[in-house]
Amino acid sequence: MLRLAQAVAFLWSLSTASSFGVPKHSPVAFTTTLPQQHQQLPLGVRGGDSVHKSTTLSASVTSSDVVAEENLQVLSERGRRSVVNLVENDTDGAQAHVYGGWPAAGSEDEGKKQLAEQLADLDESYPGGLAAYLSKAKLLLKESADAVNPFEEYEALVPEGESLSFDGEGTMPFAEAEQKGIEAMAGATFVLVAGGLGERLGYSGIKLSLETNLCTNTNYLELYVRYIQAMEYLARQKTGRDDIRIPLVIMTSGDTDPLTRQLLKDNNNYGRDDDLITIVTQDKVAALKDGSAGLALEGDDRWSIQTKPHGHGDVHHLLFREGLVDKWEKEGKSHVVFLQDTNALVINSVIPTLGVSVAKGFHMNSICIPRLAGEAAGAITRLEHKSDPNKSLVINVEYNQLDPLLRSQGDKKGDVPDPNTGYSPFPGNANNLVLELGAYAKTLRGEDQGVVLEFVNPKYKDDTRTEFKKPTRLECMMQDIPKLFQKEMGQEANIGFTMFDRWFTFSPAKNALEAGVEAVDNGNSAPGTMSSAESDKYVQNQRKLKFASADVKVNEDPATELVKVGGIPVTPGPRIMLCPAFAITQEEILAKVGGAEKCTISERSSVVLEGHNLNIKNLEVDGALVIRCGDDTHVTVDGLKVENKGWELAELDPSKEYEETVSIRGYTMSKHETAEYVLTEPGNYVIGADGEAKKV
């Protein structure tokens, strides 16, 4: 069955005028309009094509379910207005359980106030108001119940894009793309979508606070900030400009906002100025209990409406609403990079993807990976309209929509592999984006103001498709922004992709250890746990150093080289961390390691390298080595030999208690002996055969 999460993703020019009429209720007359700001905001099905404007209504009401005037007087002005709007717009009685049957004034008044204020909050937080939200929901739920095929008028084609390989061949040389990206770094801004807690991973905190690895204990937020710092440093070095500053916006949710702010405060923004980190917070939306879009109440509490996350598609409207896009344009920025919260590998792809965007003139560029045919991952697809070319566009299509679509066209084989590559010809969506700022700003200034197309994905109780197993809501995804590009720019919108090898760019942490072990037992080689994500980071750095001619064994084959620790196959080593301050480009790795007389790292070793001016000339490691250097500290490693007990992974002792960040991995790291060098004083140093760091 088609995933209804996208069921109306590509319906065109749907009317969004409210279908609500005048209710037939009790003899109380209401005259009201929605707040002015709501009248100015767009409303539409999955983004909308028209502006919702409330009309002044006057109703003679005959039903005893209507809120009595005495109860209305208990409420604040904004609460009263929201209750009245809900009643006026409820032509089919779908919301009668919310406003009907209130006890007389003086009884449960605090509950009435609470409900009215929540209705007002929901009204003010959603573009177009709660009436707009429910109007969209009714239409989308009907489309869902009717199982409408959104692709009947489309043919799926492979879009235009580039394939890059760090250590192999692609359609465009990696070095060329990287160089163009380096030239464009100064114009970059970053947006980190981070609205989720780590519950699915078995972690009670925010996902950004999870440690990416146990060698450095760097959490995800710190990793992304350090990467931006390194990009800024490199951009200044390349241009000679000291005024280059790269901002970061973090989108939080009500669940993650306080903890994210505290994490930044506790760590002094990881060295960033306050004005370089901006936090925007998304609101939740009302949950819906049935196919009539009835508002779901919170358990047995009749005075509280259940709310749910709206999705990371909110980020576009928030950036517009907060004036950040205007600000970036005035500052001369050129591109916006969107990152997800727990995929540490993706930072490697940013600069070359930026280079492809410049070279190809892409207004939107999706970072992609090779996709196995039938894999449960979205695919970037060109949807060619059969009769109207102006309706064609490039957009993500979910896997369980792609196969039926392909079975309806051409050879009708469906989602099958390309015989030449073994992969699907459609690139897999890693859901990290690079947008050209000028086109993005133009799109956000359109009538939708960045409100991307929404969808519903209800879980039905039975085949009648009217009642849900649990409440649903409207959702939105940031990768659906191409529909707004197409609407505002037509066929001028240039949307493509850049594809990288999986080892280089994709290993998200998203599953709990138990779920990962079960997946592995069922033959899955990508369990998506913290342990597999950590292992893949080490493998990535093994391959980078191997490419630079270092004597390093790459252990990545699940069948012959990985070893199970805590039930998850991980690399036995070497465990290598190349920190952002050491190298974020292929060019830097070749410059710092590629010219070495010798760089040998044994399989059991653990190595951490950090420093913009750290260079390896002659190094042998059999154990654990950490070298950290300040920004103005120049260090050459020439003749150093490290031999010690090193570090090792150890499975957890069931009789002991461990911190969550350790327990979710299924192992801990025992750090027996370490050769550690921390050099921060400006100057030139050499670490030689005697193991001493000497200033020269």
From TrEMBL:
<dbReference type="GO" id="GO:0006048">
    <property type="term" value="P:UDP-N-acetylglucosamine biosynthetic process"/>
</dbReference>
<protein>
    <recommendedName>
        <fullName>UTP-monosaccharide-1-phosphate uridylyltransferase</fullName>
        <ecNumber>2.7.7.64</ecNumber>
    </recommendedName>
</protein>
<dbReference type="Pfam" id="PF01704">
    <property type="entry name" value="UDPGP"/>
</dbReference>
<keyword id="KW-0808">Transferase</keyword>
<keyword id="KW-0548">Nucleotidyltransferase</keyword>
<dbReference type="InterPro" id="IPR039741">
    <property type="entry name" value="UDP-sugar_pyrophosphorylase"/>
</dbReference>
<dbReference type="GO" id="GO:0003977">
    <property type="term" value="F:UDP-N-acetylglucosamine diphosphorylase activity"/>
</dbReference>
<feature type="signal peptide">
    <location>
        <begin position="1"/>
        <end position="19"/>
    </location>
</feature>
<dbReference type="InterPro" id="IPR029044">
    <property type="entry name" value="Nucleotide-diphossugar_trans"/>
</dbReference>
<feature type="region of interest" description="Disordered">
    <location>
        <begin position="407"/>
        <end position="427"/>
    </location>
</feature>
<dbReference type="InterPro" id="IPR002618">
    <property type="entry name" value="UDPGP_fam"/>
</dbReference>
<keyword id="KW-0732">Signal</keyword>
<comment type="similarity">
    <text>Belongs to the USP family.</text>
</comment>
<dbReference type="GO" id="GO:0051748">
    <property type="term" value="F:UTP-monosaccharide-1-phosphate uridylyltransferase activity"/>
</dbReference>
